[in-house]
């Protein structure tokens, strides 16, 4: 893990407020070939290696219907990230960008998302391509890619609001 006292030229770190429990639960863990952040892709690719989403009990029945979709959105907790940088220098060249203008893993709530290709389902394991996270990264959620998903529930008023 990067030591939180270390900042690159131009970067700004802040004192992190005490974490409050947002009520998140890890619904599984992600198994990937990568054990070093330096070897991990910056963004996953759909022709990348097959990775395993191991779903924990009691969430295994929630996999039902996932195989209807070819693309899924995976949401995960980048657990080894520091969380205190507001300005970052991704290129380490004195030039900085605000954290919210980046997809850096370093952010106040280190949530990562990827659109992945479904490869298959084996019991409690969903096999996908397109991830970019370390082995053992905690899994927060799994949902159909919004482009493929049509709501099953009937429409409601807000669906027709414009402006
Ligand atoms: N695709 C996600 C997104 O856009 O939200 C994550 C992108 S982030 C740039 C991917 C990088 O995060 C990897 O290249 C690696 O350096 C780092 N990373 C991956 N898994 C991590 C983990 N569990 N904890 C901390 N950093 C991680």
TrEMBL record:
GO terms for biological process: methylation. One of its GO terms (molecular function) is methyltransferase activity. Keywords: Methyltransferase, S-adenosyl-L-methionine, Transferase. It holds the Pfam family TrmO_N. Residues 24-154 form the TsaA-like domain. SUPFAM superfamilies: YaeB-like (SSF118196). The keyword Transferase applies. Signal peptide: none annotated. InterPro entries: TrmO-like_N, YaeB-like, YaeB-like_sf, YaeB_N_sf. Belongs to the tRNA methyltransferase O family. This is tRNA-Thr(GGU) m(6)t(6)A37 methyltransferase TsaA. It comes from Bradyrhizobium canariense.
């Amino acid at each position: 893990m990067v030591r939180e006292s270390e900042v690159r030229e131009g970067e700004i770190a802040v004192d992190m407020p005490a974490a409050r429990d947002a009520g998140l639960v890890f619904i599984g863990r992600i198994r990937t070939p990568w054990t070093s952040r330096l070897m991990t892709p910056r963004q996953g690719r759909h022709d990348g290696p097959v990775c395993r989403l191991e779903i924990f009990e009691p969430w295994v029945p929630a996999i039902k219907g996932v195989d209807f979709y070819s693309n899924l959105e995976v949401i995960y907790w980048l657990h080894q990230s520091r969380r205190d940088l507001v300005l970052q220098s991704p290129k380490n060249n004195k030039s900085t960008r605000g954290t919210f203008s980046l997809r850096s893993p370093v952010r106040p709530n280190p949530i990562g998302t990827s659109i992945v290709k479904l490869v298959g389902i084996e019991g409690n394991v969903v096999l996908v391509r397109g991830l970019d996270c370390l082995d053992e990264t905690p899994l927060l959620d799994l949902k159909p890619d919004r482009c493929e998903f049509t709501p099953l529930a009937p429409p409601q008023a807000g669906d027709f609001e414009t402006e």
